[in-house]
Amino acid sequence: MRTFDFAPLHRATVGFDQFADLMDRILTTEVSQPTYPPYNIEKTAADAYRITIAVAGFSEADLMVEVKENALVVSARKAEDETPRTYLHRGIATRAFERRFHLADHVKVTGATHADGMLHIDLEREVPEALKPRRIEIASQKALEKDVVEAKAVN
């Protein structure tokens, strides 16, 4: 495996430390990533997204969705079933899980719904007005000259 050293990037740039940390996190992730539960990420509009997670066997009370430190954390813990059961085949996994999604700046979770064994989490990118591009009007020279008031010398 290749490893990259991002130390020169930290020395030569200002404000790109999040980018370097992201690249470091992506490149150093282990090959054996958890695959449970399966999920989809879709783009529903220009600045809207939806994460859909298959959570068969879990109720709304078993699921927890929270946002902390630019990360969306979805976790589930099934309460222990007291009734004794004998399974001939057990293919529906209801084991506890925690799935993390790192959110970009200005991405907010707008809601979550649970229907038909699927958990849908809606996200939206809300760019502040100060960061949106704005058009600067260019004043003509004649308009500047019109605003100048004649001044007389005091001495």
TrEMBL record:
Name of the featured protein: Hsp20 family protein
InterPro entries: A-crystallin/Hsp20_dom (IPR002068), ACD_IbpA/B (IPR037913), HSP20-like_chaperone (IPR008978)
PANTHER family in the cross-refs: PTHR47062, SMALL HEAT SHOCK PROTEIN IBPA
Organism superkingdom: Bacteria
Keyword Transferase: no
UniProt entry keywords in alphabetical sequence: Stress response
Transmembrane segments: none
Record carries keyword Methyltransferase: no
SUPFAM superfamilies: HSP20-like chaperones
Domain (SHSP) ranges: 30-141
UniProt family annotation: Belongs to the small heat shock protein (HSP20) family.
